[in-house]
Amino acid sequence: MARERVRFSQIKRYWPLYAMVVPTLVLVGLFMYWPAVSGVWHSFYRWDGDEVATYTGLQNYGRAFTDPKFGYAFVVVGILFVASLFKMIPSIVTAVVIHRITSDKARYLYRLLFVVPMVIPWMVVLLIWKFFYNPIVGLLNSVLNTTHLMDVLVWANAWLVKAGIVDSAAFVANKSPAWLGDPDLVLPALIFWGFPWIGIIGVLIYLSGLEKIPRSVYECAELDGVGWFRKFLYIELPLIATQVRINLVLMIIGVLKGYGLILVLLGDDGGPAGRGLVPGLYMYYNAFIRREAGYACAMGILLFFLILALTVINNKLVRVEK
Amino acid sequence: MATPWTRLKRYPALLLLIIVYVAACVVVIGNVIRGSGGAPGTGQKKVLRFAHWQLEPGIRNAVDALIADYEETHPDVEVRQILIPEEGYFRWVNTQLIGRTAPDMIECGLGGPVAWSLWPKFYARYFLPLDRYVEQPNPYNKGTQFENTPWRQTYFDEMDGGYEDTLQSYYRVPLSAFTVRLYYNKDMIDEVWGETFPATYEEFIELCEKLVEHGEQRGRELVPIAGSGYNFRQFFQTYQAAMTAPYLDRLDADYDGSVSRVEAAARLYSGQVQMTEAPIRANFELVRELSDYFPQGFMQLDRDEAVFLFLQGYSAMITTGSWDYQSLGVQSEFQIGIAEIPLPSKDNPRYGRHVAGPRTEAGIRGGFPMAITRFSENAEQALDFLQYASSLKKNEELNQAMYWIPAIRDAEMRKELKPFAPRIEGYSTALNYDGPGVELAYNQALPLYLSGKISYEDFAEGLYEAYRRDAPHGVREFIRNNEQTLAQQMRFAAVRRAAIAGAPGAEAAMSGDSELQYKSLIEVYVTQVASRANEIRVWAESAAESAPQTPEPE
Amino acid sequence: MGRRRFAAVILIAAAAALAGCGKVTGTADLNALLTESWRAYSTGDFDFAEDTFRRAAGNPDATAEQRYGALLGLATTYHWSTSPDLSKARESYLELAELGGDQPRRQSVLGLAQIDLAEGKKAEAQLGLMQLIKDFPDSLEANEAALHLADSYCDPTWDEAQASGFALPSDEQMQRGIQVLQDRLESHPDNPLAGSMHVMIADQYIQLKEFPKAVDHLLMADKEGVEGVLTRVILLWRVARIAEKELKDYELAEQYYERYVDEFPRYVLIYRVMKSLERVRALRTAEES
Q1: What percent of chain B has pLDDT over 70?
Q2: In DSSP terms, which residues pair with B372 in a beta bridge?
Q3: What gap in Å lies between CA B263 and CA B430, rounded to an integer?
Q4: Which of A13, A51, A59, A291 is the best residue to mutate to test the C interface, defined by the most C CB atoms within 10 Å of its own CB?
Q5: Which residue of A has its CA nearest to C10?
């Protein structure tokens, strides 16, 4: 049946349809678009986040461009972004492995096992990881000590210091490394967080893509003697490119604007030497600690444009060939 | 034909979800009914609700005992405690107040940086001012030495803990007081050191060394002091007060008895005060030395992590407040001792000459403050209950049960808490290092210095650069924000003036004597205007002094 | 029929949604309305205060006194709310003056002068304040006007051309401010704000480093009586400290340190005061011997 186009002039007849959409539009406008508009508006003001607002023009933007801490925050988030690109790989691999399980029951079971931990609130996960990183009683240091990997790290660190490759020793004999308290270990700790980096949402999205691949494609590949890796590289990966692109966009947005993880693990100042200070956290600090919400809004607008630019680049570079 | 039950059994997850949801609804509805004073028509009693965040062991039972006593003498009243965890407390209060469903009595003050500016607005909008009551005697002090004493004067702090400076009114009824001390694992310290806890800093360092050795001998990592950013601050502030006391005379330009953040920042900005001066350097070097006995990277650890280390025996000492006395006692498997944070003796060659004295606890204000919601149907009854709780006899009983310090003068605290008695002798901090605009740089650099990653010279230089870069904007913002407070004074003065000028309704709308209040408000306004002018003058003179000099023409 | 029912549902829903928007005061009495308005103002509910003051001001049954109260309330709300609307406040103050009579005119002139100060129109503000003092010399508003006038001379101002961002008043300007208050104290020595005036003069002398004069005025403020605990505690400390450090008047210092110990035994400086008292007593003994 051909779809009928509803013209606005026919509103008298179709007004219930419009009426049903109105509440959602109002709520989306109020809770999503209005705060954004307010943010843009207040970025031109000296605003304390409450009632006091004085127009300052482009002063906040000028300050953001010359603020060394804001610039440094982009360096930090850049490093985390590159690391996050690599951290996408385990989810893809996991989805492929689950997809290739021949038994339906086993496939269901593994999917269930991966999904069950989702019920744990994210904050609880963060706090558990914070405990893992505890220098005295944390699991990470315990494992490293028990497996004598700590000795390897101490030796390697000493060698790197001697060779002049690094300045300071984060791993010293008989001293538990402070993963969140040592400026040299903060970024590695943030990158390592979430190990083994299997994001279940990503896995499910990739699985949904993989399941659309017709069986016949695999049969042809087997007949041609294609190995498991080439199957992945030339069949599965291209056919889930749409999903990869979606996740990449979500990852860009998440990493660039996210700060909750760092706030919980390192505090509102981004940890020792501000090594974990990302743009989102710096915005939070200015808005709620310094109470310079207008400046935080200006930083937010600049961040928005950066995310938009990266999303456009992503859409152009990651092509989906059907 | 398949029945609905048969169909539902095919979807076990959905069934589970429905069961859990129904159970949750039943529990929530039950809580709501219980929390709002029972279902309608369940009795003639007035129901008062008392909300707080003190989940420490023993507090709930102590408050329950107080309530039981009160209900015995007031059979027409029922009081219910509502306990909300600290993490969500402010948000809960916020929504309850806005929704006009808040309990009759609410504990105030919590919420962190976001909330600090919102509480005064809450007081103004949602809570009952108590000015007219605080000058009258507490009826529950009849038969005691306070029978004719105004309620507020029965407090150890004259009810300063209940006074809201920004609104110039009393809004809170404090029920306790708190001080901070060093808690130690008595069993371990007795074994390693002996019965008498170190009285001086030198002995304290020796004890820490012995504890480290003790740990090595047992093959277990033992960190002498359970540190975190939170606990460390208590140490730091003790030594900061002790070693910066002489700066008051040097830096207090307007003789108001304190060195404001701007006064300090201006001098650090211009270099009139240098971070390399002997007392300041000694202050930081002392805490750097002490940091060796804290866990690695302690500045990033939480308070809870520090408590865990202490209770699990990984650390022998921790600093925290008297509010934790009972909870630590209940959770520990060892005896706990209480001590003062030891200061360097006068003979200490590095630090001794810089120590003026301990940190004073004069000026602490009453805590566990309860406010009465304006729209409570039983506001008068709630006031009566709080007067009961803050009477001499009952406040003593309540705090003895809670293992806290009473807020009322002459009320006896438990003998175990004697070490927590506020210390009047001592000095307040005369020099703050993290001036307006520089806080972030300071907080980021301090852990680097304390962990030994950078030298003191690098730390001092970095801080000076941060002052040069960030203080101008920070000081301007600080002064601009303070101008809001000036306007606040004028806002109240205007309504008092209107009342004196005979504007209908103005006098009836306010409590207290308008002429007296007006005079008081103008006095405070004049004081704040002078303070602002002084800060600006000090800042301007410092900025001028350190402005780049234009080279003389040849 | 379905359409009508749907429309009825929408209407009821809208009514339910909007029902909470209006505030029903339940008071027919205008005085009670004004009381509620002032209460709303004092608790920070400025929108409600503005709305009710405006209604009261426009009420045809309002007496002259009630209209005065309503206009004053409206002007005050516009002026001192956390997001002030100074142009509307100015209009309301001007309307207040049109009511005639001394009371409204005094409030109006004072309010307009304060607005001028807030907008940086110092000269206009100073003219207004001087006129108020001249026209209504015995009024409460004239006392407050004197304080604001003095402050306008002595107060530093924002000036981005300066390295610090502020321009400091010259010594002459500060002396002028001091003179305003001294004239007022001379003509009205027992005015209710005399204590504050002496404190303000003392503050200026401290900035000018003329400590003997500063102490004289602090002593006069003490004699006039200072109500606020915060102000009194600073006053006692200041007299004692300046007497000890700047004037070397150990007798005066001892007297005021003793008073501090008596009146404020639990204030934060108590230990310093006690140590200072010991020191000053020793110095006096040394002096006398």
Answers
A1: 95
A2: B105
A3: 10
A4: A51
A5: A19
CB contact under 8 A, C76 and B425: no
Beta bridge partner(s), residue B79: B48
Token pair 């920004």 in the structure block, residue: B166
| C-alpha distances out from residue C79 to B343, B517, C58, C115, C284, Å | 53, 20, 19, 8, 53
> Would you state the pLDDT for residue C195?
95
Closest in B439, B453, B481 to A183, CB measured: B453
CATH class of A62-116+197-317: mainly alpha
- What are C37-66's pLDDT values in tens digits? 998 888 778 889 999 999 998 888 888 889
Which helix (H) or strand (E) segment holds residue B163: the answer is strand B163-164
Average of pLDDT values for B114-128?
Answer: 74
- Reported as a pLDDT band with limits 50, 70 and 90, residue B42 is low
How many angstroms separate the CA of residue C251 from the nearest CA in chain A? 46
Q: What residues of chain B, 517 to 536, have a C-beta less than 8 Å from chain C?
A: 518-520, 522-527, 529-530, 533-534, 536
Residue A320 pLDDT more than 80? no
> Could you tell me the pLDDT band of residue C18, with boundaries at 50, 70 and 90?
low
Q: Cβ of A50 and C10 within 8 Å?
A: no
Rounded to whole angstroms, the Cα distance separating B36 from B39 reads 8
Both structure tokens of C169: 């008043």
Q: Would you call B419 helix, strand, or coil by DSSP? A: helix
Residue spans per domain, chain C: 165-227, 233-289
Q: What are the CA-CA distances from residue B291 to residues A183, B295, B346, B446, B452 (Å)?
A: 16, 8, 22, 11, 9
**Which three-class secondary structure string do you get for chain A?**
CCCCCCCHHHHHHHHHHHHHHHHHHHHHHHHHHHHHHHHHHHCCEEECCCCCEEECCCHHHHHHHHCHHHHHHHHHHHHHHHHHHHHCHHHHHHHHHHHHCCCHHHHHHHHHHHHHHHHCCHHHHHHHHHHHCCCCCCHHHHHHHHCCHHHHHHHHHHHHHHCCCCCCCCCECCECCCCCCCHHHHHHHHHHCCCCCCCHHHHHHHHHHHCCCCHHHHHHHHHCCCCHHHHHHHHHHHHCHHHHHHHHHHHHHHHHHCCHHHHHHHCCCCCHHHCCCCHHHHHHHHHHHCCCHHHHHHHHHHHHHHHHHHHHHHHHHCCCCC
- Of B155 and A170, the structure prediction assigns the larger pLDDT to B155
Phi, psi values for residue B17, rounded to 5°: -60, -45
Q: In chain B, which residue's Cα lies nearest the Cα of C215?
A: B255
Angle CA A91–A93–A98, to nearest 5: 95
CATH class of C165-227: mainly alpha
Interatomic CA distance for residues B532 and C155, integer angstroms: 9
Domain map (residue ranges) of chain A? 62-116+197-317
Asked if B257 and C234 come within 8 Å (Cβ–Cβ), the reply is yes
Residue A32 has pLDDT above 70, yes or no: yes
What pLDDT is stored for residue A321 in this prediction? 54
Are the C-beta atoms of residues C102 and C141 closer than 8 Å to each other? no
Domains of chain B: 35-178+364-420 (3.40.190.10), 180-360+434-460 (3.40.190.10)
* Backbone angles phi and psi of B343, in degrees to 5: -100, 155
Mean pLDDT, chain B, whole residue set = 89
Report ipTM for this prediction: 0.89
Could you read off the pLDDT of C67-117 as tens digits, one per residue?
A: 999 999 999 999 998 788 999 999 999 999 999 889 999 999 999 999 999
Q: Is the pLDDT of residue A77 over 80?
A: yes
